[in-house]
Sequence to fold (230 residues):
Amino acid sequence: EVQLVESGGGLVKPGGSLRLSCAASGFIFSNYNMIWVRQAPGKGLEWVSSIDGGSSYIYYADSVKGRFTISRDNAKNSLSLQMNSLRAEDTAVYYCARESFITMVRGVTPDYWGQGTLVTVSS
Amino acid sequence: DIQMTQSPSSLSASVGDRVTITCRATQDIRNDLGWYQQKPGKAPKRLIYAASSLQGGVPSRFSGSGSGTEFTLTISSLQPEDFATYYCLQHNSYPRTFGQGTKVEIK
Fold:
């Protein structure tokens, strides 16, 4: 059974840092792109970042570029999102999800999602 | 960047109604589009992938169509468990972009 479990969310002050993790199981982790998507309270879904199976292709939303870093450890079936210089507008539930690879930029609609972890940026 | 315009933003419908939600892309995305259903406090659930392929286990009252720039999600006969928010997502290029969402409410 495919499972994605996020952790690491919490309350952090503006300007602070947080590291999110996503533990994957039930599939060959290195065969898939992984993505982070967030949802601010009462708002829609926003794509944050993607990484391919070999960590060769990494993409970020403009809203997080230069502040967030996505990475993965295929040996540990783990995905991470290092979030620095956090702002109030980064407050959201963060989801990790699995995406099948087609080309360097094309994928298949992400199928499995974790349950999400809440990040609150507030003083 | 590709923008996804989803409409309507909300709708009220009755059980048994036929419901149609549309997403338009600002450039050709082939069939690289999926549809999700999200209920409060839950992760999105994939309903449709590759524009028209039904996710396993999803009722056949859900269907997707379109290619290029215009896409549609149809619920042929709305059921009580279908009241939720629906999103489209394009995965043809980066940045990935979602539609703004359509909240389907009980009339």
In short: Chain A touches chain B at residues 35, 37, 44-47, 50, 59, 61-62, 95, 99, 102, 105-111, 113-116 (CB under 8 Å).
